[in-house]
Design a protein that fits this description.
The chain contains eleven helices and twelve strands. With 373 residues, it is of the alpha/beta class. The strands form three sheets. It has a six-stranded mixed beta sheet with strand order 2-3-1-4-8-9, with helices on both faces. Strands 5-6-7 form a three-stranded antiparallel beta sheet. The relative contact order is 0.12. Bound molecules: guanosine-5'-triphosphate.
């Protein structure tokens, strides 16, 4: 059987479990996940290689395939420039796709014009209300597509099976979905069936990425996301939404081999955490730098396992008033844009290399160099 390949965009409301699904399919953490809505800000591509599964009497089999899964920010009405940018990422992901997964949270209950959402902290007890207009807004995006759209009901681990039927009926009256697949991204339940349905809809074609490539996103940007994830997890109120992380220095070790002392080599990283107000900066730093230290330590552990090296991590907190409303600042946060700027800088420094003096990266010791700037 020939190879099938294509782009599969995962879209849905914030917190539906898009990033969890991407990570579960790839078997690796590529997108950060938190219980806070609007965690994902950019589209994230993960490349999934699927081997041929031969047809048997009990199995219809599956073609060999390369599936480029595209995680997107949660669909929401844009308010700030950052929101607009996030929604642009969703639109871009919907433009170049072969199949779309419209993912909905099966724990939501729909009554009339309102959606009742489970509170993660008090499962089954408290329900918060949301307007159904948000569901409709997300649905409108896929209704106009000309490609197959699969309805993916996520979080079925938290819902009695009997409750699924009314949800399926509700959504099926609103759009003609190519398939309806109940899954639990968290428990990795239903994913094989989902992949079968996806692959059968992909065209035969060539690989878009080399066989062993997991993503198009360079490691330094995954690192920035891991730091942002810890901010989301460790700080409350408005801070998570007002925070952005920019990697300012990224020095990879010359060799990945262990040193004579048996220790892994070191990657040296310095990152700026941007927030919008002095008060947010104070929260991010914490009393005597405790919060920043906590963010740094938690992030460093994850970054070390991502990179397979030891990591010296230095964090700075900077205030950029109302950055979410500033178009240029928001555009500059985009990793594709940053990559272009880096390439330009490297081109310039290559030509200046002979006259320039080397600047040594400061040695932070074993601890995080968490400090305020
Ligand atoms: N019970 C349960 N929880 C899940 C499942 N999948 C995701 N979650 C939880 O739902 C929350 C949101 O998950 P994410 O994967 O960040 O959701 P998202 O759709 O990417 O969110 P945004 O980035 O806001 O768009 C997290 O707390 C997840 O652990 C699931 O299958 N079952």
């Amino acid at each position: 059987m020939a190879l099938r390949s294509g782009f599969v965009s995962i879209v849905g409301r914030p917190n539906a479990g898009k990033s969890t699904l991407l990570n579960a399919l790839l078997g690796q953490k590529l997108a950060i996940v938190t219980h806070k809505p609007q965690t994902t800000r950019t589209r994230i591509q993960g490349v999934l290689e699927l081997p041929l599964r031969k047809k048997t009497s009990s199995d219809a089999g599956r073609s060999m395939a390369q599936v480029v899964m595209v995680d997107t920010p949660g669909v929401h009405k844009p308010d700030t420039q950052l929101d607009k940018r996030m929604m642009q990422e969703v639109h871009d992901a919907l433009e170049s796709r072969d199949v779309v997964l419209f993912i909905v949270d099966a724990t939501h209950r729909i009554h009339g014009d309102e959606v009742f959402e489970q509170d993660e902290k008090k499962p089954g007890v408290q329900r918060r209300r949301k307007s159904k207009a948000e569901d409709d807004f997300a649905l409108q995006l896929v209704q106009k597509l000309d490609c197959p759209v699969i309805l993916v009901l996520n979080k079925i681990d938290s819902v009695p099976r009997a409750d699924l039927l009314p949800i399926i009926q509700h959504w099926s009256t609103l759009h003609k979905f190519a398939d309806v697949i109940p899954i639990s991204a968290r428990k990795k339940d239903g994913l094989e069936l989902l992949l079968d349905k996806v692959v059968e809809k992909l065209p035969e074609g060539q690989r878009y990425f080399p066989k062993d490539q997991l993503t198009d996103q360079p490691e330094r940007f995954l690192v920035a996301e891991l730091i942002r994830e810890k901010i989301l997890m460790l700080t409350g109120e408005e801070v998570p939404y007002a925070a952005a992380v920019v990697i300012e220095k990224y020095e990879e070790p010359a060799s990945m081999r262990k040193g004579k002392d048996g220790k892994l080599p070191v990657t040296k990283i310095a990152a700026a955490i941007y927030c919008e107000r002095a008060g947010q900066k104070a929260i991010l730093i914490g009393k005597q730098g405790t919060m920043l230290k906590q963010i740094g330590s938690a992030a460093r552990k994850d970054i070390e396992s991502l990179l397979g090296t030891r990591v010296f991590l230095e964090l700075f907190v900077k205030v950029e008033e109302d950055w979410r409303t500033k178009r240029v600042f928001v555009d500059d946060l985009d990793w594709r844009r940053q990559l272009e700027q880096l390439a330009e800088k490297q081109g310039r420094s290559m030509s200046l290399a002979e006259s320039a003096e080397a600047v040594d990266f400061p040695d932070f010791g074993e601890e995080d160099g968490a400090e305020e700037k």
